Amino acid sequence: MSVAAELTEAIAGLRSQLSSILESVDRMAATRSEPANSVGNINLHAGGAGVWIATTCCAVMMAVALIGAPILAVAYLDMRAEIRALKDTDNAIRAYINTGALKPAEQPEPEQEE
């Protein structure tokens, strides 16, 4: 094929694509000019078992929070008291070690008999 024949085929393909695009644009313009007849409905049917399940779950969650919070607070305070006691014990042990009371006493050298 010659270059002129290839160009002629390419031009014909582009013309067919352009005509299909223009037809699509004309169809979209025609449908856009018409008023929309669609009406959307949203229906909510709340009630029955789902509402009771959600309400029960919320009530249980609130009960656990109201009962569990004081229990956790007491446990936290006990833990802090235990940590404080362990720190005091550790400080007392370190103070005892630093006084030098644990150093071994120097033993006098035994006298040698001549």
Write the layout of secondary structure elements.
Elements: H1 3-33, H2 49-98
Describe this structure in words.
There is one protein chain. The protein is an all-alpha fold and 114 residues long. It has helices spanning 3-33, 49-98. The longest helix has 50 residues, at 49-98.
Low-confidence stretches: none
- Count the beta strands: 0
Largest sheet: none
Order of helices and strands: HH
Radius of gyration: 46 Å
Shape estimate: elongated
Q: Looking at the chains present, what oligomeric state does this protein adopt?
A: single chain
Tell me what portion of residues adopts beta-strand conformation.
under 5%
What value does the average pLDDT take?
86
Q: Which class of secondary structure composition applies to the elements? A: mainly alpha
User: How many angstroms separate the termini?
Assistant: 130 Å
Tally of structural domains: 2
Estimate percent helicity.
over 70%
Number of helices: 2
